Every structure is written in structure tokens, then in C-alpha cells.
Amino acid sequence: MTTESVCLCGLNRISFAGEPITKRRLTGNGFSNNLLMSTDDLKVLSGSLKTNARQANNGNIITTHFCGDCRSLLYRTTNGYPGKMVIKAGCIDDDGKTNAGFVPKVEIFTRSRVPWMAPVEGAKQEIANFTSF
Q1: What is the DSSP string of 44-112?
Q2: pTM summary value
């Protein structure tokens, strides 16, 4: 399965292949929803993404890949998980088909869960980052 993702202004478009391992979209809310995917089939279909790297608390380098025009974050990579990327699922450009059938399998960083958000029933609960895929 190949899926396309697009930034807010539409100048940058990427595609990736595979089935999601976890989550959904980065928002200004109390949580972030993402899809953990392989970088093997990542293609930049249009535009030229910009990057910004920073060191996480655990020492890993997190690189954010975003549109240089509208600043929409499309995905992130880290040296802590080589060959994987975190796609911001809210940018997926498929009229809601991917998100409609999506059920999270893992919740991470649950130690900082906002008090009004209940755990996802049946999802593995990780207090920090992934311990396994």
C-alpha cells in the first residue's frame, strides 16, 4: 500500500509504503497522533523539504522534516530508530480513508498524558518511548 502525505500549503508532497505500526497527528492538543513507518519507500513527490535537528533528552537526534513555506511538519526521523520515520497522520492526503479505520496499537509517553484523556482500550501503554515494535 502506498500513501501520500501533503503539507498545509500543498507545495510539498511525499509518499511512503507499508502498514502503520502505531499512532496519528501532531496537534496543539494534549497528544500527538503518528504513524510509525519504514523510510525504505519514502519519496518526495514535490517540493523541497527543510529540516531542523535537535537533541532529545535521551541523547538521540530528532530531525523534523517540514515545508519551508507553510512550516507544516510532515515527518520526523531519529538515530534512535534507524530506518523508521514518524509520519504526522493528519497530513495524509486520502480524504480520511487511512484515519477512518485506524486504531492505535501503542500509546507512548503516557506518563505525561493529560488528565482528561483516557487510555485507548486495548493499546499497549508505554510510560516513555517504545521498548519494542
Answers
A1: EEES-EEEEEEE-TTS-EEEEEEETTT--EEEEEETTSTTEEEE-GGGB-STTHHHHT---SEE--GGG
A2: 0.68
